[in-house]
Amino acid sequence: MRTGFDFSPYRRSTVGFDRLFDFLENASRAEQDNYPPFDIEKLADDHYRITLAVAGFKPNELDITARQNLLVVTGRKAESRNRDGNFLHMGIATRAFERRFELADFVRVDGADLRDGLLALELVREIPEAMKPRKIDIGTGTSRTIDAPSERQEQVEQQPQRETEAA
User: Fold this and answer.
1) Which CATH architecture has domain 35-129?
2) What burial class does residue 86 get, using C-beta atoms within 10 Å of its C-beta: 0-12 exposed, 13-18 middle, 19+ buried?
3) What is the pTM of this model?
């Protein structure tokens, strides 16, 4: 039995939304792994924070990679617990993980802090000036001269008449 949706019919009638459909298809196929848990906060209009609970991990055991529209946080811990067999129960998760976040266009990672077992990633959206909305003034049409092309047209029409008169 097939799970998820087939977006093929919609791909044919849309332009520029390929990434959106890829994201929806990948999200429906992704495993539902909730480790490590995380929060996403909106601090201001263009400032966000992702906080991951990475208790037991040191900064050198974590790797943060930011690519275009993708943020990948990985954690690798050398398993050194229970070598001597003294643990009766091991409930603190120290397994390796990889957590991926799809970022919107023009979002960059501004910094990362690890404190009290929480990894805080600061994100900033910086839209380039050329991409920002701008106000376009509407003219009244009186500032442009329409006569100039007409005068040229008259000159072109009169030229053949002069040539026939000269002959």
Assistant:
1) Sandwich (2.60)
2) exposed
3) 0.60
Which stretches within 8-138 are classed as H helix?
A: 8-12, 18-29
For residues 122 and 109, is the Cβ–Cβ distance under 8 A?
Answer: yes
Strand 70-75's sheet: what is its strand order?
62-67, 70-75, 97-102
pLDDT tens-digit map of 89-143? 877 777 899 999 988 888 899 999 999 999 999 999 888 888 878 888 888 877 5
Residues 6+ apart with CB under 8 A from 61: 75, 76, 77, 78
pLDDT per residue as tens digits for the range 34-57: 889 999 999 998 899 999 999 889
Residue with tokens 């209009």: 45
Q: Among candidates 126, 124, 35, which has minimal Cα distance to 77? A: 35
Alpha-carbon Rg for the chain, nearest whole angstrom, is 31
Composition of the chain by helix, strand, coil, percent to 5: 25, 30, 45
Give Cβ neighbours of residue 113 (< 8 Å, ≥ 6 apart). 119, 120, 122
The Cα diameter of the chain in Å comes to 117
pLDDT of 154 higher than 80: no
Secondary structure letter of residue 86 according to DSSP = -
